[in-house]
Amino acid sequence: MKFTRKLLLAALFSLVVILIWYNQLIKSVSRPYLIRNGVVKVAESQNVPDQTLIYPNLGIIAPVSASNQYSPFSLRDWNSISSLLEKGVGVFYNGNTIDESTYVYAVGHSTASKPQAFASIFASLNSAQTNDEVILKIAGQEYVYKVTDKKILSPYDTNGFSEFFSDSKDQNNHRIALVTCWPLFTTKNRVVVIADRLN
């Protein structure tokens, strides 16, 4: 009887620790379902500070660290990128400004290896749907995008990543790719959500 009680208490304690540890993950994964079913309000972009990414239907509102100095395709840049992800979402582009860039990538954690404020900010990214809106407030500008595509790619498939932007150069259609590791708790693949700019 004593052994069973100790085992039950240990299991209960473990469950509490897991719920505390993964509280943000649980919220991130459940929020899109709750928003789409009207249980929770859609995240709004009013009164949100500059340097913020908002994905209303997924309930994502995250501070942005933007840089044209790093590339998500360069392994040597990942130490710097990883430190930016502890502060929110990293936004990377290849021109002097976002308007002059041929690509914009927003990278965030789905499940980071250690607990931190934004360890699961993009955990719900696989729930993205066509026509969802994504808003990027950066450098005093507000860029509004509409989701057009979602794929799961290998992190080594640079052709798969670059194909999303091949026709945006020709059509002068600015795009953003939101990227995170997938499935949760792994770095095996990447969920890539593509959105075209509306304004």
Tell me what you see in this structure:
- With 199 residues, the protein is α+β, with helices and mostly antiparallel strands.
- The protein has a single domain, classed as Sortase, Chain: A.
- 28% of the residues lie in helices and 29% in strands.
- It has helices at 2-21, 23-36, 78-85, 158-171, and strands at 52-55, 60-67, 89-93, 104-107, 133-138, 141-153, 175-182, 189-197.
- It has an eight-stranded mixed beta barrel with strand order 1-2-3-4-7-8-6-5.
- The longest helix has 20 residues, at 2-21.
- It is globular.
- The mean pLDDT is 85.
Topology (elements, then pairings):
Blueprint: H1 2-21, H2 23-36, E1 52-55, E2 60-67, H3 78-85, E3 89-93, E4 104-107, E5 133-138, E6 141-153, H4 158-171, E7 175-182, E8 189-197
Parallel strand pairs: 2-3, 4-7
Antiparallel strand pairs: 1-2, 1-5, 3-4, 5-6, 6-8, 7-8
Task: Using the coordinates shown, work out and report the CATH topology.
Answer: Sortase, Chain: A
Give the oligomeric state. single chain
Shape verdict: globular
Which percent bin holds the helix content? 25-40%
Provide the domain count: 1
User: Would you list the SSEs in sequence order as H and E?
Assistant: HHEEHEEEEHEE
Strand order, sheet with most strands: 1-2-3-4-7-8-6-5
CATH superfamily: Sortase
Low-confidence stretches: none
User: What is the tally of helical segments?
Assistant: 4
Number of E-type strands: 8
What fraction strand?
A: 25-35%
CA radius of gyration is 18 Å
What structural class should be given to the helix and strand makeup? alpha+beta
- Ends apart, CA distance between termini: 67 Å
Chain-averaged pLDDT: 85
Q: How does the major sheet shape up?
A: 8 strands, mixed, barrel
CATH architecture classification: Beta Barrel
- CATH class (first level) name: Mainly Beta
